[in-house]
Amino acid sequence: MQSLKIVAANIYLWAVFIPVTLMSLLIFPFLACYGILTNSFSSLLRRGIRLYGFILICALSPVVPVTLTDRSGGFSPPVIFTPNHTSSLDPYLFGLTKVESAFATSWPFKIPIYSIMMRFAEYIDIRKGWDELKDKGGKLLDKGCSLIIWPEGHRSRDGRLGRFKKGAFKLSCMKNRPVVPVCIKGAGKVLPPGRKYIQPGKIELVLLPPVYPPVQRDKSCMSNEDCAIHLRNLVKTIIQKEMAAS
Predict the structure, then answer these.
(1) Pairing state of beta strands 146-149 and 80-83?
(2) What is the mean pLDDT of residues 207-218?
(3) Alpha-carbon distance 115 to 62, whole Å?
(4) CATH code, domain with 110
(5) Which of 179, 176, 177 is nearest to 239 (CA)?
(6) Angle between helices 41-59 and 112-120 in degrees, nearest 10
(7) For the chain, what is the domain count?
């Protein structure tokens, strides 16, 4: 019986994913023309990608209900979201947020159609390293666009938090913008790395209170490197506590 539920869930997944994606591709030329005429193409595309994620997540709700729990207490964009990462479903979940944002990521740039969209939307190819993140990420923040950066750099294979890299936190300290820790629960059970099919289940996206660079809080003379390390350790602890409370 359980096997039949899994088969039905995956048939439903593809029955939703394919037409929504094809419809999005059909709309793209019209979106591009409007964006070019109004000089807002990249921003409009980022909002369109967020809407695409929102539609997919809502359409999948009969088999994979997703809940957005906002415990941030509010924040003023742009911010840097730093989520844990356990599933290829994770990026789509941010369609539930109402914030214009760009990803710093790698895998979409490896997929022919997705890579074109990513470049037009000014997403950051994290494979190019810190200079790419600093330059493109800094410009996006200056334009009021929030960033989504996976501090682990890859999906966790066992559901536990891996080592956090410093890039997101160096950028936060450099641009004096807050980090919003994000805890994603359940996605690793629905579609963990290495599995080709989804397992019906519930997912929760939890936005936690923003964490500000210490240089903003106490006007200290802390170096950017020390600031990044302090921020990285603090944010990782916050996400770990939220995961443990599940």
Answers:
(1) parallel
(2) 80
(3) 30
(4) 3.40.1130
(5) 179
(6) 130
(7) 1
**In this structure, what are the phi and psi dihedrals at residue 111, rounded to the nearest 5 degrees?**
-105, 125
Residue 55 reports pLDDT greater than 80 = yes
Report CA-CA distances (Å) from 149 to 11, 12, 22, 88, 204. 31, 30, 27, 14, 18
Strands (E) located in the chain:
66-70, 80-83, 101-105, 124-125, 146-149, 179-185, 203-207
pLDDT of residue 146: 98
Helix axes 167-175 and 224-244, enclosed angle (nearest 10): 120
Which residue's structure tokens are 């207490």? 73
Torsion of the alpha carbons at 226, 161, 106 and 229, rounded to the nearest 10:
0
CA of residue 108 relative to chain centroid, distance:
12
Please work out, in degrees rounded to the nearest 5, the angle formed at the alpha carbon of residue 109 by the alpha carbons of 65 and 171.
Answer: 85
What is the average pLDDT value for the chain, to the nearest integer?
A: 91
Residue 223 predicted with pLDDT over 80: no
Whether residue 221 has pLDDT greater than 90: no
Global pTM reads 0.93
Residue showing tokens 């989804």: 198
Kindly report the number of other CB atoms within 10 A of residue 121's CB atom.
21
Assign 220 a pLDDT band (cuts: 50, 70, 90): low
129 conformational bin, left if phi > 0, alpha if psi -120 to 50, beta if neither: left
Q: Which domain holds residue 145?
A: 2-244
